[in-house]
Each structure stands twice: as structure tokens, then as C-alpha cells.
Amino acid sequence: MKIATYNINGINGRLANLLRWLDQAQPDVVCLQELKCETSRFPEKALTEAGYQAIWKGEKSWNGVAILSKDAIRELRNDLPGEDDSFTHSRYIEGFTFGVVIGCIYLPNGNPFPGPKFAYKLRWFSRLMEHGQTLLDTGLPVMLVGDYNVMPTELDTYKPQKYLNNALFRTEIRQAYADLLAQGWTDAIRELYPDKRIYTFWDYLRKAYERDAGLRLDHFLLNPELGARLKSSGVDKEVRGWEKSSDHAPVWIELREPNEVTEDKDSAVKKTKGKSTKKAEKSNHVSEKNSSVSEVDSLPEDVKALLDAAPVAELPRKIKAMKATQVDQPFHDDGWVYEIKWDGYRALAFVENGSAELVSRNNLVYDHFSPINELLGSWGLDIVLDGEIVVLDEIGSPNFVALQNWRSEKDLNLLFYVFDVLWYDGKLLTDYTLLERRSVLEAVLPKEDGLIRISHLFDADGVAFYETAKRMKLEGIIAKRAESVYTGDARSREWLKVKAKLRQEVVIAGYTRNEDSGKNFSALAVGVYDEAGVLRYIGKVGTGFNDIMQKELLRQFKPLETKVCPFDVEPDVDEPSRFRPRRLGAKPTWLLPELVCEVEFAEISRDGKLRQASFKGLREDKDPGDVVLEVPSVTDEVLEDFNEEVEVSVDEAAEADSDTTKVSATVKPSKSVRVKGVKRKMSTKPLLEGKNEISEKYIDGHVIKFTNLNKQYWPEDGITKRDMFNYYDQIAPYMVPYLVDRPMSLNRFPGGIHGQSFYQKNVAETAPEWAHTMPHTNEKGEEREYLLGHDRATLLWMATLSCIEMNPWFSRVGSPDNPDYCVIDLDPDKNTFEQVIEAAQVTKSVLDGMGVPSYVKTSGSTGIHIYVPLGAKYTYDQSQLFAEVVVKLVHRLLPSYTTLERMISNRGGKMYLDFLQNRPGATIAGVYSLRPKPGATVSMPLYWDEVKPGLTMRDFTIHNAVDRLREVGDLFTGVLGDGIDMVAAIGKARDTFG
């Protein structure tokens, strides 16, 4: 495959040169820049006659981009994500062709430097980096090609000293290019020629071409998959010398095909593949099998260990394919990997003794896909595979309709995409994790052997991967938990499917023909089974079939015709609607409900009917009785099962901490038993990488914009606003449970910790439409709209408001007058932190003596917070009364340096035992909240035995909080558990302390 880039510098004025070069060079794909023509004046006809299809984005004056391809090409984007109001000089168009995503770039030179055009160039480059990372995350083959107007190194200019202050060679833009490469891109030209001066541009002035005074401005950046396929490259320099030439010359690279190997790899691959002749004799099979067995010794050591440890088993003939649960939206989670959802027939391949059989989910044998069976049998492997049979169209996309025609059109591109292995060479693998099974699959399966391919597994951003699948018009994606075992015939919640198109399997129970219609039939009457096994009518399907397809369907309908309506209630198949207000005289012919088809539709109406349904093909692999209406599960609810792995219940921890030892002035708190907390999945990859100032991310179904990413929020520590966003993104699984449904008091620090801050409680005018809010009238009678904590997106949106710390109410929206916990805030003045620690220990002893569980965290500032669960059973007044009882007992035991005096001026430098926080609307820094203090300290839950001399606030910061949680889990969950019996606790206090 040969790909070129060419800054044509006016396509209509240089069309003859372009066509001449295309005829000579015969590139498969060409990226063009500086079209300098309006969209309507693009010479599509001339290029079509030359054998190229095209997508383009024109502009009258001075730029514009296009991609030409000898194959079908589909436009994915015609601009980068994000906006810039200052300049609009740059151009970007993105297409999909030859199975590759190609971004074509034109970036202006940015001169004069310094100036607004250069600043714009850097901003645009930041947008390119953001989108480039998104493309890399999809895992698809991707390249970014075009005129970058950047000379990355001194080798890329004939005279470096001349260009030191030129926008093409400034250190800022070279660094931006280097940062882009650091994401994982390969600079194709420099990869092949690391030390050679190669130029792609020669100025018109001063006879630069004749002197070879050139620059390299045109670049190919390839993702790792394409980088591994890089074969050769060149510059067709002579084109620059043609009459009326552009100041750029065409540049090209050549890629190996996906299944093409270098000479040094040939022998190894041939050994793996064995003989592939369709008419292999048994003797050949035996020799191949022996060869295959001998290859076991050459498998990777980890794969050999897995196979050695796997249980011995006969070929599992009765096993059925594992099913995926449909969910309503895409997601990203580090514990999951992603695949393309292929639009075909699911099949298990049973291969043994040189014979192969493909079997559907309902045990139908696919004997008409004989080329796949023959190739499987020729390998000499005993194996059971899971995969999908598909037919690809001319641009490499699955075509379900074409799959229906396989019997009659054997020249179609038939493939079997394999994504799992269940049994191999007498060993059952189903109890291994997905990643372990994949390691076996990739080690033993012949590589890309024509009709059979391994379906790629992408460790990608699930949301970005889904968006790319949508743009490529694919059916959807499959998310698989990396640690999932194979559970045959189960609708697993560890495999999830997210559809990019609304598709539904339906039972064909009749067809209609309108009066005066010349068609074989007008529509299909379709239905699904309900939970009681009753066939319910859900509408008609009137498009998606041509005359030939209709005739073939009628042939299959004929033996199924019946006079009895199969639906529970006979529908009015000629019923008018607001989209078709008149009757068409449709008459039904009922059919026995034995055929299943798949349809694509726009929506399901309120009365349960399909709207704008289109026929996609028969599903011969489905049992009609299994066809029900697919209702997607809520993604968040499904994932919740995997995000809370409780090792030991918090109730047990509370019981272990409980002690009723009577308090004295020197009492020590009861012995603390360390019990691991609740573990939740956290992202291991930063949300916002790179050095760009602005970024947009898709979070919980919403686009959130992050700005001023490089701003120093903790300047003494070099901690930026980007670092804050990344912290809250990682910590969200632990923090969000303590924010859900709680009104938030927004403490905003737009200038960082040393800037002016302010509180915002009313978000009526500022909250996004998707935010959850609570109307509230405060004690002054003012109407407010409080933001409610809800999910990761809400947390990150608060962070975009420069909320360094998060301050939730003690109560939730459903019970605003009843707090979930009581808080005792140890607030030191001129005290040492050792005194704060001692006060915390005594407070715990008092609570132990009352038979009350307690949970402790650092404030992240100077004090310590102690929480007691109430379970929303009491009012704020009752909570405050309880806290007052506790702190009076503590003060009685530590009178020398504690006080209950609210006025600071009257405290005499003593530690305030604050019980008045327990009132409506009051907030303190929430659990896991960052604090606007030097060091970026965190309000961190502790084991009680950690509350001892030597503890400091700087023990827990933005730098180590995530690692701590991975180690100990969430120690604070008991705070949200069942509340105490307050009456019994106060009574016990009287008995214990008098």
C-alpha cells in the first residue's frame, strides 16, 4: 500500500501536473493540501476518471485539504474537535479507506514570530495532540499525514541558523511536534532515514530548488500498528522541477500488507501455518498434526505454563457460546478491554483430527461455509474457537446482507474473526481469564491465514473506541472484563455490548401487500416474545429489500402460510399513523413464526411499535422462541457490581473497634484491629496528558471542557490544575459515594491556593443541563439552586470551577433535615499536632465507652475529623446535642488545652472541640478532598492505630493518596452504614461517665 502527501498549492492551476504524477507514481492514497479552491470547484470528475475517489474540504483563498483513494473512502471528520475564534487558517479532514484511518493536515507557517498567528499555531497543535491521543486510544490503524509546516530537527533544513526565529523552526513548535511523537507516533521518514537530510519543500525565491536549499515540512506520523508495517519511503523530487510546479514535491511511504512478513520471519510463520491445501489427505493431516505438536516446545514460557496447568478434558461438544449483556452507553474502565462488534453469524468452531465444524448458538451446523471448515481442518490443530462469520464490503466493513448471499455469490469476502479459545490439544481453558485465553489463542493460531483472522482486542479508551466505531458505521463494540472466565450459554455481565445502531432481532409472522402495488410484498409483520412466551406484534418492516430478495423470501414464506394469526391479538396492519395518515389497503398473509430476521430502526414508539424499520437479513442462527425485545441495561448499574470488592465488611471493623472500657484522665483508646477497606477500581492512566492548555473529554456521557491546564495551583510544589483534575478523576470511585445526592457548597479558587477564593452555593444560572440540583430556601428566605453530587462528571465539573476542595452537606436531598453522620471537628489554635492526636485518642475512648463506632480522618489542614454514623435517623438538632455530650466529656478529661468556646478571641489559644458543625447547610472538607494548603494535602481516612505521635498532615497528599487507597481501600464506608442508637448511647454515657 502506497500513501503520499502533496501540498499542491492550487489544485485547478496544477491539475495537469497532479494527473501526470498520479499516472506515473500510482499511489493508492494521496493527501492534498492548499487546494485553494472552493468546495464546489474541486475537480472531482477529472480525479474520478483517473481512478480516484475523494473527500475534500475547500476554501476559496489559500488552503483546503483532500484525501484521494483508489478504494472507497468514507469521511469521518472535516475538522479537529474544539474551536478557535482567533484564526481559522488550519485545515483537517479525516477518512477511512483501505482499513486505515487517515487524517490529512494543513497547518500554516505561523509567521511572523512572535505574533498571534504563531500563538494560534501552537493552540491548534494542542488540539491535534488531544485528538491524536483519542485516535491512538481506539487501537485502529491510524496515520496523521500532511503539511505540518514544522522542521522537527536540524536535519530538516539546509541552513538551521537561518531559521532560528522562523515559526517553522522555533523551539516551541519543535517541542510541540516532539510531544506529539511521544504519544506513540512514528515519524515515518525519520524512522527510515535517521541521519539523512531529506527535503520536501523548496522556496520559489533565490533558485532554492537548483541549489537544493530545501526544508522538510511534510510528515507521516504512524501509530504503532502501521509503524510496524513501514517498508519504504521517498520524495518524488523531480516533480518540483516540472513547469508550473508547486513549491512542495510529493512525498510517499509504502506499507506492508497486514499479513505480509519480512524474509527473516517467513520460515517461522510457515512452520506455524502448516499446509493449507483444501484437499489434504489424512497422511498429510497426521504429519501436520505432529508438526503442530512439536511446535508446543517453541511456545512462550507463560503459554506453556498455562497449558501444562489446564485440566485434561475431551473436546467439549456441548458447550455453547458465551453471550454479552447489552448496555445503554459506552464507558471506560481500566479493568476492561474492547473489541469491534462484528455484524455476522456467531459460531463456535470444533476442530479435531483434521475435521472442522462450525456451530451456531442454537446448535445449527453451518455446513455451507465450507472454505472456512476446510482451512481450519488443514491446520493440524485440535482446538475449539469462538468467533464471528462475516462478509466484508469493498471498504472492509461487515455487510450482513451480503452474508445472506454467500451461497449464490461465492466471490464475496468471507472471513471468520476469532476472538476466543475454549479448548486446545486436550486441555480445557474456560476457567482461565480472558487475557490468559487470548495469550494462548495468539500463540497457537496461525497468523492472518486468509479466511481466518484474530479479532483485535483493544486496550483503549472505551468511549473513544465507541465513537470511532460509530463514525465508521460499525454495529457497535463489545466490552469484556479482562479477568472474565468463559461461561458458556450465559448472558454474562462481564461481556457487555454497546450498539452504535439500533438493531433488533424479530420473528416474521406475516407479510402484507398494498392495493395496486407492483411489489412482491409491501412489508413484513414482525413481533417478539414476551416473558410469558406470547408473541407480541411490534410493527411492520417495509424497506431494506430489493426485488430479488423479496422473491427469495416469498419462496421461503410459501410453506409457512397459515390462516391463523400468530400474534396474541390480530393487529391492524393497515393502521394509519401521523407519518402515513391514509390507509393503503394492506392485506395480511400470516406465517407460522419460524423465521427470524434482523432489523435496524429509528426508535420504538410509545405504543411499542418499531419506527422506520429496515430489513437487514434473515438470522438462520437464531431460535424464534429466544427472540425478545432487547432493553439495554444501565451501564453504571452493571459496572457497580465490579467496582465494589469488599474484603471484610465494615460492620465487622466497627465491632472490632468497639470497647466499653471506662474513661479516665489517662485512658488509652481501645485496641484497633486493622481490617482492609472496600476496594474500588481506579483508572491507572491520567485523564489529561501532554502539555496542551485546553482539553475536552467525554465523561459519563457528557463533554466536559478543561482549561488552563498548566496553571500552577500549588506553586511551591509545582502542582498544576491538570494534576488536580487527574487526581479527582482517579479518586472518583472512592469519593463519589460520599457526594451522591448531597448539596454542595462550592469553594472556588480560580487563582490557585494563594489567590482570592469565594463560596458559591447557587448554581441556577451556571450548572450544565445534565447536572442534578436541589431548590432550597435558606434561613434568610433566599431562593437557591444547590448542585447535587451525583457522579464522576459532576465531580470533575466542580473541579473545572476551580473547586480545590469538595464540601458536601451532612444530609442528602431525600432527607435534608436528617444527617447521615455526626462530626466532631478538632480545631487547634496554638496547639501542637501531638495534642490534636491525643484529643482524638480521648474522643475515641469516650465514644468506645458509649458503645459507638467512630471513623477518623485528617482534615488535610491542621485538625482531625471524627465521624459517627447516624443513618439519617435523627435531626440536626439531635446530632448536635449528641456531639455536645461527647465533647463535654473530652473537655472534662483534657481541660488544659481544649475549649468549647465558639468565639476565637475567647479561646485563649486552646483547641476548639467543634460540635456546632452539625447544623443544616454546614460543610467541612469531604473525605478524600484536596486542600488549598502547601503540599496539596488530602483529607484522608485513617486506621485508629495510625492516630499516634509522628502522624502529620503531609503524610497524605495528592502524590500518594491514590497508592494508599490501592493498598488499604476505603476505610470510611461505615460512615454511610446503619446509624447508632442515640438514646442508648447517651444512656450508656451517663452510666459510664456519670
From TrEMBL:
This is DNA ligase (ATP). Residues 407-533 form the ATP-dependent DNA ligase family profile domain. It is an enzyme of class 6 (ligase). It comes from Pedobacter africanus. It comes from the Bacteria. Belongs to the DNA repair enzymes AP/ExoA family. The active site is at Y106, D147 (proton donor/acceptor), H248 (proton acceptor). Pfam families: DNA_ligase_A_C, DNA_ligase_A_M, Exo_endo_phos, LigD_Prim-Pol.
